[in-house]
Every structure is written in C-alpha cells, then in structure tokens.
Amino acid sequence: MSEKLERSIEDLAREDRRFPPPAYLLVFEGLETALARLPHRRHVAPRELLEGIRDSALDQWGFMARTVLESWNVRKTADLGDLVFTLIKRGLLVAGDEDNRSQFDGVFDFEEAFDETFLERLARQPPRVVVTRL
Q1: What is the pTM of this model?
Q2: Residues with Cβ < 8 Å from 110, sequence gap 6 or more?
Q3: Domain layout of the chain by residue ranges
Q4: The three-state (H, E, C) secondary structure of 4-16, written as one string
Q5: CA quadruple 86, 82, 47, 105: dihedral positive or negative?
Q6: Is there a contact between 118 and 54 (Cβ–Cβ < 8 Å)?
Q7: Cα gap 99→96, rounded to integer Å
C-alpha cells in the first residue's frame, strides 16, 4: 500500500473518529480478495465486496474476526457501507453507477458470517498437526 494512501486514511480516521485506520485498510484488502475471484478485472458489486471483506477478516483473524471488527466499531454490514462510501467521498474508491449506500444494509448477520462460517470451514478442513523429527 502506498504511503500516500496510508496518510490519506490516517487523516480520514482523525476527522471521522468512528473507525480506526485498520478498518479502512480492511476494505482495500477485501476488494483485492473479491477481485482475485473474478475471471477478469471489473467493477465489484457491493455484495461481492462484503464477501471479500468477510473472507479477508476470516483469513487474518479466524474465530476472532468478529471481535476484531467490533473493536473497530464495525458491527454490521451497514458499518462497512459507511467505510466504503466514506472512501468513495474522499476519492479513494470509485462507485459504480448503480451502487448506493443502502446496498450495504443488512446483507448478512455478523455472527453467522464470521463465527458460523469459521466453524464450517474448520469442520471441512481441520488443522493438521505436522510432527518433525529433531
């Protein structure tokens, strides 16, 4: 991530104290996750972006993902929409012609999306213990 973008996000977080800089950075990580799933680069729909953010958070923090987000004052998809549209207003992201803030409202429940999804993944792919000889 560029130094200029990081400074812009830090300035943004100082002005709008609802969310800390890492919450805004997670939006960009989620965008990259969503784009990586596409056969070719194109605009990402709000739901795709939310799923990318969810998966990025789960990949980074596992069962603690919801707890981390809640510590940043992000408790529902509408909060993620606030983050996204604040970045759009600042010119750090671009919205599609059909995108609007309300498309982020009530898309998924955080307990289901984070806790239950993590547990389902864990059941499908339990951690493996690798023993090495010393």
Answers
A1: 0.89
A2: 66, 69, 70, 75, 76, 77
A3: 3-124
A4: HHHHHHHHHHHHC
A5: negative
A6: no
A7: 5
pLDDT single digits (tens) 80-120: 999 999 999 999 999 998 999 999 999 999 999 999 999 99
Residue 30, exposed/middle/buried by CB under 10 A (0-12, 13-18, 19+)?
buried
Instruction: Write out the two tokens for 16.
Output: 């709008």
pLDDT tens for each residue of 58-78: 999 999 999 999 999 999 999
Residues 4/16, Cβ–Cβ less than 8 Å: no
User: Are 74 and 20 contacting, i.e. CB atoms less than 8 angstroms apart?
Assistant: no
Integer Cα distance of 49 and 118 in angstroms: 18
Token duo for residue 31: 């965008």
Among candidates 21, 43, 37, which has minimal Cα distance to 93?
Answer: 43
